[in-house]
Design brief:
336 residues, 8-stranded antiparallel beta sheet, single chain, alpha+beta, 3-stranded antiparallel beta sheet, set domain protein methyltransferase, domain 1
Length: 336
């Protein structure tokens, strides 16, 4: 029986930390420039940017297997005696008091949108999509997630997608290091991909797999969608302030652009719930080797990998960027 996949830090936290330079594109060149960023690293110097920490604790919560009954530990504890997880059939850990992993039953998502997304990623040389992992619904809570369908050893790659398949929400080559807010990233998401006809067609397999409005079956409302009374009723003043600040920013950007408040609000939900943040160093040009180069934070959307859920207690997998200096870099889930 396969299993759901998740992260130790919430997407809200990850997206909230997203910080990248402001963009200097105009409406006619935004998408082509973003494609160049990922398709031609030599000209944009992405290939020369060294990735600094790209770790997001991802959990394959309760990994179960179709035919082996084996999997890897789901505990993040560094003390072996405190770890819990799934043992191989040959494990000697069968004595009194041995922990029995909870069984998580799921049903595969056989929708056309998910099947099309998987086919698209496989055509782009992604690995482990449909072969070792699949998207499904947790029968206990109805949540959609990524499930592993076989056992994975520690440090084994669970699945990976080429970095060309990542949707950047900012320009990593921009000189400024001013942070972008979630709403600004949402604005870029809409302008770069949703509203751009060429990009929308290119990324249709991914965009079609995402919730599109509040009536979508996979939409789970956050405080951004609460009424004024519901927001005021929140017990945490910082949460109330954060929500109100974001709503004010949505209204302001909507007034200054051709985007509606509703579009920006929903796009902000997409970004906050699905984006990852990676750190990249500044290019070496015009900088002394003795000068510390500041790192930029780049928010990205990662098709299929964003199906993982979060578990801050028991992460058993991590997100890595493999071979960032090479033309063929990969975003990969690695067993922990």
């Amino acid at each position: 029986t396969p299993t759901p996949i998740a992260t130790a830090e919430s997407r809200e936290e990850a997206a909230g930390r997203a910080a990248t330079p402001h963009l200097k594109h105009n409406a006619d060149t935004e998408y082509s420039d973003m494609m160049v960023i990922w398709k031609d690293r030599r000209s944009t110097r992405i290939g020369e940017m060294k990735m600094i920490t790209v770790l997001f604790s991802i959990v394959l919560a309760c990994l179960l297997v179709h035919d082996t009954g084996a999997s890897f530990a789901i505990s993040s504890s560094k003390t072996p005696s405190q770890k819990s997880g799934f043992a191989d059939k040959g494990s000697s850990n069968k004595g009194f008091g041995a922990k029995t992993p909870p069984k998580v039953l799921h049903t595969p998502d056989t929708s056309t949108e998910i099947q099309t997304l998987c086919q698209f990623l496989v055509s782009q040389k992604s690995v482990g999509i449909g072969d070792g992992t699949e998207v499904g619904y947790n029968l206990a809570n109805g949540m959609r997630s990524m499930f592993a369908t076989r056992a994975f050893k520690k440090n084994e790659i669970i699945c990976k997608i080429p970095s060309d398949c990542a949707l950047a929400l900012a320009d990593p080559t921009a000189e400024t290091t001013e942070d972008l807010t979630i709403v600004q990233c949402a604005q870029n998401y809409l302008n770069f991909y949703v509203k751009n006809p060429t990009a929308a067609q290119t990324w249709a397999p991914y965009l079609d797999s995402l919730p599109t409005d509040r009536d979508s079956p996979h939409f789970s409302p956050t405080p951004d969608f609460y009424s004024s009374d519901e927001i005021a009723a929140l017990e945490y003043p910082r949460a109330v302030k954060a929500v109100q600040t974001r709503l004010d920013e949505i209204s302001k950007i909507a007034d200054q652009s051709e985007l509606s408040s509703e579009e920006l609000q929903f796009a902000s939900w997409i970004v906050s719930s699905r984006s990852f943040t990676i750190k990249i160093s500044a290019p070496d040009e015009q900088m002394s080797e003795f000068v510390s180069k500041p790192a930029k934070k780049l928010p990205v959307l990662l098709p299929y990998l964003d199906m993982v859920n979060h578990d801050s207690e028991n992460p058993n997998a991590e997100l890595h960027l493999i071979d960032p200096e090479k033309d063929e870099a990969w975003f990969a889930l690695r067993a922990k």
